[in-house]
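Retry 2 of 3 after timeout on previous attempt. Resubmitting structure tokens to design endpoint.
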């Protein structure tokens, strides 16, 4: 992660001290297998050696990257910030090693659930990638509806 940041900073011609905003997303267990990380964005800033004025963590699932980009654009346009670091990625090591999906990381830990309705759904098994496709299709349908009905948001 530090190596990727260093390369991005070199390409942009800026230093870590120039980063004014930081936006990321987080699902427990996907960064380093630790499900009990608190204040994850702050921990990442410390790990990366940055001290931004603005820190945000988005929890929208798949659209988090686009939401982060949207927020970064607003910070630059309306808040006068110049350099916003967006840190998003794929599956973390433990999730990848066990071939779970980020939506079913709860299968890795006892007593952890990503929905309060798990007991109601206990008779069903997670059917990836079909379930993932259905989720993406539904989100696309909702985004299309929003873009038609509330065009000022975009």
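Retry 2 succeeded. Sequence:
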């Amino acid at each position: 992660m530090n190596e990727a940041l260093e390369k991005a900073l070199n390409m942009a011609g800026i230093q870590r001290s120039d980063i004014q905003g930081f936006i990321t997303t987080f699902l427990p267990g996907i960064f380093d297998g630790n499900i009990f990380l608190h204040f994850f964005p702050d921990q990442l800033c410390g790990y990366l050696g940055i001290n931004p004025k603005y820190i945000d963590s988005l929890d929208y699932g798949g659209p988090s990257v686009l939401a982060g980009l949207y927020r970064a654009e607003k910070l630059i346009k309306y808040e006068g910030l110049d350099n916003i670091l967006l840190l998003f990625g794929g599956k973390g090591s433990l999730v990848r090693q066990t071939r779970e999906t980020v939506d079913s990381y709860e299968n890795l830990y006892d007593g952890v659930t990503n929905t309060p309705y798990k007991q109601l759904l206990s008779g069903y098994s997670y059917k990836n990638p079909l379930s993932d496709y259905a989720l993406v299709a539904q989100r696309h349908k909702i985004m299309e509806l929003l873009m038609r009905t509330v065009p000022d948001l975009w």
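Attempt log closed. The chain has a mean pLDDT of 76.
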